[in-house]
Amino acid sequence: MKAKAVGTFITALALSISASIASANTALSERLIPNPVGVSEEFAKFVESKQPAKSVSSPQTTEEWIALQTQFDAAMSEVTRLGMKKHGVTFEKKSIGGVDTFLVMPKNVSPEFEGVRFVHIHGGAFVFGGGEAGLGEAAWIANGLGVEVISIDYRQPPLHPYPAALEDTVAVWKELIKTQSPNATALFGSSAGGNLTLTTTLKLQQQGLPTPGVLFAGTPATDLKYTSDTWHTLQGLDPLGAREGVIDGTFALYSNGADLAHPLMSPVYAEIKDFPPTIFISGTRDLLLSDTVRMHRVLRTANIETDLHIYDGQSHGDYVRGLNYDFPESDDALREIRMFFDKHLN
User: Fold this and answer.
1) Of the candidates 270, 269, 153, the residue with the CA atom closest to the CA atom of residue 206
2) Collapsing DSSP states into helix, strand and coil, what is residue 281?
3) pLDDT tens digit string along 182-208?
4) Mean pLDDT taken over the chain
């Protein structure tokens, strides 16, 4: 390339970079997004089967919220029961520390987890996923790792806003560690359950209680105050939809007027000096990718042992869909979780 051409190229590149730095609000044109490359054939078919998010207006009354909650949970319960039946996972209701829970049992318990129970906090934007509807991820871990799981059926809005859920998760934890070593116990959950996994741990630290030996926070909602980058950039790719509307409504319902920037609401704002080893999982089409990445950086800044796994083409919580669908990416996520747990649980 001649000197003049090189100079022209460098000038154009510099202008492009400076322009991209200066641009804060970018309007993107409509585009066609192809199936992701480099994923398994099974997962590619799963992506093709997805339906776009339906626009649902946010309920305005308690009665409307309860009606939507009931409708959502009924649909999810059916899906969850099918997945559990497929893998021979069973459950029974139990009260632990005065809180409703489910003991989720795999068909076969791994020798390494004999006599051990992990603790699960279900997702569902804090409002949905109660009862059997919230057992999908617990069953996925129970079956995939061969471990019994206690899934907490915490109290939820609209009748029980913050801090009811945290009170329930802490109560179950306090009761469980009377008979089981905290260092041998994992605490985990995804989405709102990922948030509650992190905030429960912060609450335990505040109360001077032993914390879990390891955490798994899948695609956690870590900033309820502001809308992180990928809520904007990935909108339309994730069937979760958009933050505006129902999801913002659930955050408002859950917080019940509390400060959304409080670390027990948005753990990304916590001042962390010590924390259990934590593994995060998200995907390149996950609306909560930025929430996940930001929380991972908070822990890394505090020199906490933490892993971050981002799966190509996956949207919100796709890795858990392995309970109902067969694709190797879900098995790979289980493998990463198992290795991280094996490394850090005593």
Assistant:
1) 270
2) strand
3) 999 999 999 999 999 999 999 999 999
4) 93
User: Three-state DSSP class for 86?
Assistant: helix
Predicted TM-score (pTM) of this structure? 0.93
Q: Residue 258 — φ and ψ, nearest 5°?
A: -70, 160
The separation between the first and the last C-alpha atoms of the chain, rounded to the nearest angstrom, is 61
Q: Which element (helix H / strand E) includes 42?
A: helix 41-48
> Taking a C-beta distance cutoff of 8 angstroms, is the pair 262, 235 a contact?
no
135-164 tens-digit pLDDT: 999 999 999 999 999 999 999 999 999 999
> DSSP code of 82?
H
Tens digits of residue pLDDT in 78-90: 999 999 999 999 9
Side chain identity at residue 111, one-letter code: P
Distance of CA 304 to the CA centre of its chain: 19
Distances (CA, A) of 280 to 23, 144, 189, 289, 333: 31, 17, 10, 10, 10
Q: Are strands 99-105 and 148-152 parallel, antiparallel or unpaired?
A: antiparallel
Residue 129 corresponds to which tokens in the numbers above?
A: 């996923």
Residue 309 has φ and ψ, to the nearest 5°, of -120, 120
CB atoms within 10 A of CB 67: 12
Calpha distance 312→301 (Å, rounded)? 25
User: Is residue 288 within 8 Å of residue 221, measured between CB atoms?
Assistant: yes
The SS3 assignment for 214 reads strand
pLDDT reported for residue 15: 46
Residue 282 — φ and ψ, nearest 5°?
-155, -170
C-beta of residue 272 within 8 angstroms of C-beta of residue 303: no
In three-state secondary structure terms, 150 is: strand
